[in-house]
Write a structure and sequence with these properties.
Blueprint (H helix, E strand, L loop, with lengths): L13 H11 L5 H5 L1 E2 L5 E2 L22 E8 L2 H13 L4 E6 L6 H6 L7 E6 L4 H14 L2 E6 L1 H8 L10 H11 L3 E7 L1 H6 L3 H18 L8 E6 L3 H20 L8 E6 L11 H16 L3 E2 L13 H17 L13 H23 L3 H6 L2 H18 L47 H10 L1
Parallel strand pairs: 3-4, 3-10, 4-5, 5-6, 6-7, 7-8, 8-9, 9-10
Antiparallel strand pairs: 1-2
Helix pairs in contact: 9-10, 9-13, 10-11, 10-13, 11-12
Amino acid sequence: MTTNLFDDFTSISSKQWKQKIQFELNGADYNETLVWNSPEDIQVKPFYHKDEFTKVFSVPTKATNFKICQNIFVYDVEKSIDRALDSLKRGADSIRFTIENESIDITQLLEKLPLENITVYFNLSFISIDFVKKIDAFANKSHTAIFCNLDPIGQLAKDGNWFVTNEKSNFETLNLLSSATTSVSLIGINASLYQNAGANMVQQIAYSLGQANEYFNRIEAVNQPIVFEVAVGTNYFFEIAKLRALRLLFNLIAKEYNHTLDCNIIVSPTKRNKTLYDYNVNMLRTTTECMSAIIGGADAIANLPYDALYHKDNEFGDRIARNQLLILKKESYFDKVNNTADGSYYIENITSQLAEKSLALFKDIEVNGGFLKQLNDGIIKRKIQESADKEQELFDAGKEILLGTNKYPNKDDRMKHDLELFPFVKQNPRKTLITPIIEKRMAEKIEQERLNLE
């Protein structure tokens, strides 16, 4: 017989808790002292109580199914195969290939991999009907889950230009591919661009949904899951809520198009808060970010190596990044419980507020011509820049803290000798259709000043 261990305790109401807290504040104002506003204008209270909680939605998450993804840039096919096999042997169960060259032999790349129980993502820097049809034929033959992540709108937003194609438009190419393929998922949405450029969470969700809505409107048949590539930061509970709100709203919008397939969310830690100096702190940041991703319902997580800012891809950095996820999965048991956030009044409340505000912004975008129009008009970039500037001001004033950079920096740290990559915004003057959205880290100005003094 089950015994309720708490029958002897008197229930305390939300009102009683507030009265007790107010008494302990010795006259200080409750709201001014303990309630704070997030960049999304969400009020965060010091406690949440069942008296004030009404669950009005369900966001199923399956931490038991999340996959550890390994990023691989494909230049040499044989080396990429060896690296993929090694990664799978060492614990990865998903691969994301980045391909910039259409001449890559895709069949050779895939046929030597044990594809029975893994998921494969592609980040393609081009759109080619013939290339994607080869991937589709292989997926059909091998029964492998393959996501091509084609995102022309994301390409326009990030690069300023559309993909070069033989067809009249990128959307015509996607429509031709939609009718010519049966086994691969075509559409991906690069939501990480907005986070890395400084957008707040409401903007990240609304802009991602705006992109999805454009594809639903412009592609005749979306018969496979849509992939969201999302970046998460260190605001632990808010990032959990962000992923849950994104999935909730996507399913709400997709239902209007009779699209019944759940989205696939692949998550990576953001670059925006990563630092060049005291770089080992990046491991602490990415660990909590991966934890948020798991609890928030990511289908796959591709961790960011601690040295990704300044080192080329290397075995040690990849191994550390992969091992962080293995520890969370195999030793911390993050994959043992589904729907972990359910019943947390705090997370449920933030999820609800993020969803409401994001849906309101999404509707406003649609009323004013849609996402693509606002992107072309520069409105999306301007709004993101406004949010990024506010965050940068807080960082410059020491109110937004990155340990080892604007708080407790190690003055003896030297990095100039270790730079294999240029870690700052790159200048590339060229002709573009629109001004692209630029990803930029908060610490760049401080780091450039320190490097000049070395």
